[in-house]
Every structure is written in structure tokens, then in C-alpha cells.
Amino acid sequence: MHQLTVTRDETTTTTPGFVDFEDAHRMLMSHAIGEDLYLHAHGNANTHASTFNLVKLEGSPKAQPRVVGTATIEPQPGQPVMSPYYCAAAAQEWIADHEAAYYHGIDHDPGRNRAGHVLTAARAEALRQFRAGTLFDEAARLSDNGNQDVPRPRQTRLEILRDYAIDLAKTGHTLSAAQLAGEVQRHLTPDITPQQTAALIWWTALLIWGAKAS
User: Fold this and answer.
1) Are 8 and 104 members of one domain?
2) pTM more than 0.85
3) 49, 75, 101 — which closes off a domain?
4) 59-92: per-residue pLDDT in tens?
5) What is the CA radius of gyration of the chain?
6) What are phi and psi of 111, to 5 degrees?
7) Cα dihedral sign for 165, 158, 145, 79?
8) Domain span at residue 54?
């Protein structure tokens, strides 16, 4: 989910609940047209937010542009995210809870459960049969970070983390929750959000399991 924040005349209005960036941008365009404004995007160090100057042409006979406000589109904040340690512990516990059913099946759901599909995909991605990050969105949902629209990290970051997860699996060591969280955090860049961190910890835990199970 995304939200749109418009600031004009020292008044700030935030409208949440947009499905995605495009949905919020359509609302911003409607606002600009209705108010006879032009939008001028400007650079923003925050890669997860897009900010626009609201520009109005004023004066006669030669109109001059004047910035009369700003608008920002960004992901809508979710609920507080668990710390990396607890994310890692939750991921490892979830895998342990579903591993036996994955290998042996269960009477009322013979191999067709959601967890089974997730673990099957984890094995395939760990074998590089899928593109790095294929399971990221599912990992974001499993991390329960309160934000349904967690932006994907850059593809290069996903590829680096996948390679590292496979290397960790090859050591044969079982990582503690603290070690798993620490290993993931060491490979993150400053622009990674807490929601992305939670999802990446789950994703890495799944890939480590997938590499060991393959």
C-alpha cells in the first residue's frame, strides 16, 4: 500500500490506502489538473519515496513558474517490525514446524499445502532454477511485517545474498537466530528498510534450508 502527502500553504494532508505507486500518482495528477498545477519531480535520497514540486504559472503578460507546494508518494508505514533476531527465530521455527510434513506428507493434505509449495520453491531457488528473489514476496508475507507492499531490493543485492545463503548451507553448520540475523545484516546496504530486512531474513533462512535439502 502507498500513501500520498500534499503540502500547500503550510497545510499537510496525507491520504493512505492506495494500492500501489501508480494508483497514488493518478490521484496526484487529478489534483494537479484540478488546481491548474504542474508537477516537477526532484531528486530524493530516499529511494522508496518520490517527491514532486507543485508548480503554478503566475504573472502577466509573461507567466513565471512558482513552487506552491510539494507532494510525496511513498509506501504506507506498516505495523512495528520485529527485531532481526526475532525475525530469524520465527523463520527457523516455521521451517522446523513444516519440514517433516514436507518430506513425509500429512494425512489431510498430501503434499498440497502452502508450506509445501514454499519449501519446494526454496529448494528450486537454492538450486538456481529460479531467478534470485523469486520467493521474496512470499518471504515478506511470512515475515508479517505489517506492510503488504514491501519493495524488492535491487536484483544485484538479491543475487549476492542468494550466493551467500548457499555458501552458508555448504558449511553444514546450523546457525543460531542471532547468527542468521547477523549474517544477513552484514550484507545489507543503508537504503534497506526494516520491512525489507525482515523479509530478507526469512528469504535467506528459506534458501539455506533449500540448499541443505537439495
Assistant:
1) no
2) no
3) 75
4) 777 778 999 999 999 887 766 788 999 999 999 9
5) 22
6) 80, 10
7) positive
8) 2-75
